Hints:
This protein has helices spanning 7-29, 44-60, 75-87, 106-110, 124-131, 144-155, 175-184, 199-203, 253-256, 270-291; strands at 3-4, 34-40, 63-69, 93-96, 164-168, 188-192, 208-211, 229-232, 236-239, 245-248, 262-263. The chain is of the alpha/beta class. It has a domain at 144-272: 3-Layer(aba) Sandwich (Rossmann fold), CATH 3.40.50. A hairpin with a 5-residue loop joins strand 9 (236-239) and strand 10 (245-248). The longest helix has 23 residues, at 7-29. The chain is globular and about 55 Å long. The mean pLDDT is 97. Bound molecules: NADPH dihydro-nicotinamide-adenine-dinucleotide phosphate (NDP) and 5,10-Methenyltetrahydrofolate. Residues 45, 145, 168-171, 173-175, 192-196, 199, 212-215, 218, 233-236, 270-271, 274 line the site of NADPH dihydro-nicotinamide-adenine-dinucleotide phosphate. Residues 5-120 form the Tetrahydrofolate dehydrogenase/cyclohydrolase catalytic domain. Residues 143-288 form the Tetrahydrofolate dehydrogenase/cyclohydrolase NAD(P)-binding domain.
Amino acid sequence: xxxxxxxxxxxxxxxxxxxxxxxxxxxxxxxxxxxxxxxxxxxxxxxxxxxxxxxxxxxxxxxxxxxxxxxxxxxxxxxxxxxxxxxxxxxxxxxxxxxxxxxxxxxxxxxxxxxxxxxxxxxxxxxxxxxxxxxxxxxxxxxxxxxxxxxxxxxxxxxxxxxxxxxxxxxxxxxxxxxxxxxxxxxxxxxxxxxxxxxxxxxxxxxxxxxxxxxxxxxxxxxxxxxxxxxxxxxxxxxxxxxxxxxxxxxxxxxxxxxxxxxxxxxxxxxxxxxxxxxxxxxxxxxxxxxx
Length: 292
Ligand SMILES: NC(=O)C1=CN([C@@H]2O[C@H](COP(=O)(O)OP(=O)(O)OC[C@H]3O[C@@H](n4cnc5c(N)ncnc54)[C@H](OP(=O)(O)O)[C@@H]3O)[C@@H](O)[C@H]2O)C=CC1
Ligand SMILES: Nc1nc(=O)c2c([nH]1)NC[C@@H]1CN(c3ccc(C(=O)N[C@@H](CCC(=O)O)C(=O)O)cc3)C=[N+]21
């Protein structure tokens, strides 16, 4: 039987500590932990993320605020906004949603975020810490999506040490930090991407596949070793022939699920884990302020 790696029970198990930690910080600071999200333009996956984290923030007692900027905003304006948030003592965590429009250099914006407020774990400092963790230790801070995936694997008792892990996608927000975390926990890691010449040859030998491309149905049943663990990060919206809207991942779920050992659903898998890791890191950032 395929194990469906649903986020729901994992999140339920996190709720008590998130709520208690947020309440503790609220009592100490006299205000709730505060997350500010900067959203430029209207990327659909970002819109889903913003909506879900707002709802979950309210549930656990975090104040979440979204600053929306027009798609034609200048880089200097975004830098100025981030600097203002860095200086604001009432803001504990800052995230700038990616992707950003072409006129803006994402690296410049990300590295303007103060290290202490970088709850996405994207700055150079955070990246350096992630890649230099002691061997076999668990990352406790870092980019929210791979952190959430590690939490999901741990909850369901899927050990990664000695496994052959193939990550499809090499972005700074998912693919690369995922590689760091799996590698650190003892997996043998391959990162595939659009220039990989034979993707199927790579995935066919994988014990764990992490698909993070934004390409619907990229991972098909013929690419999967029976019994493999399939982690689907993709967030793709599409409208079917009958005009009905769907949200799907990068995996051909209907055909892959029956042969997989374990698989994350979309929705209800990786996405909610990301949201909860973001809130966890926001509460932790506020707790550090409270302890000062
Ligand atoms: N569930 C969640 O919590 C999250 C979901 N997402 C979703 O995950 C997906 C990926 O996000 P993100 O990492 O930001 O995306 P990017 O667009 O930054 O990266 C996509 C990666 O996929 C690779 N790729 C594209 N097409 C192929 C192909 N045909 N074969 C192999 N590799 C391919 C690209 O290769 P190359 O580098 O060569 O261009 C690139 O490395 C999106 O759908 C996004 O919305 C993202 C973050 C969190
Ligand atoms: N700086 C930055 N950090 C990010 O982590 C980041 C980003 N930018 N840009 C966009 C992507 C995308 N992303 C999602 C996270 C959760 C869901 C999510 O909650 N998904 C639900 C959707 C449920 C629904 O509403 O239907 C699910 O899969 O169940 C979606 C998308 C984070 N990203």
